Amino acid sequence: MSEVMSPERVLALGTRATAGAYRLDLRDGAWWWSDEIYAMHGFEPHEVVPSTELLVAHQHPADRRRASDALEEAIRTGAPFSCVHRIVDAQGRERVVTVVGEGRERGRDADRATVLAGYFVDVTEVVRDRAQAAASESISAAAESRATIDQAVGVLAFTYGYEPAAAFAVLRAASNDANVPIRLLARAIVTALPSLRGDPRRVSAFVDGLLAPAHRGDGASS
User: Has this prediction a pTM greater than 0.85?
Assistant: First the structure.
């Protein structure tokens, strides 16, 4: 069974996440929203009357079916639930929210919950921060790989007297032959250099063994 997010867990997401409370009376379908949920949907507090229809209307079209199904299941069963989806606010801005909740207030004579209550958590900035961090990491990794490949190309050019373009062609051919990414092959060459101590014969023998037969292919004749 899913665990409902407490205010403490909401705060643990950091200051870049905003949480608002909601309450749905399952007997008459009446909603109550805290001011934060109005703001998430682009409204001033109490500017509109919150309703299931209003919620669905602001769900992102691509996420609407999944988000609506999760809400309908929670209303039907009262079981704890959590759903991450996008909404589009009244100004047309896209936001990412996590909605959590559970059925509450079962009376003595009630065989099901009479209230669904929980939180909307706006995680737009958290998601954006993480996406930017991942992009930065990817760019850094790509730059590092490029530098390693360029260094390996330099080693091949020096060892075999190739032009840089021909040396890269040899590295690419060896990558294809061995079904190994170029960056890993280049890293193997660069990593081995200290142990070879700059001895041209040792470097040549190592590269021969690593790239054969690719270095004897088209690249060498370029």
Answer: no
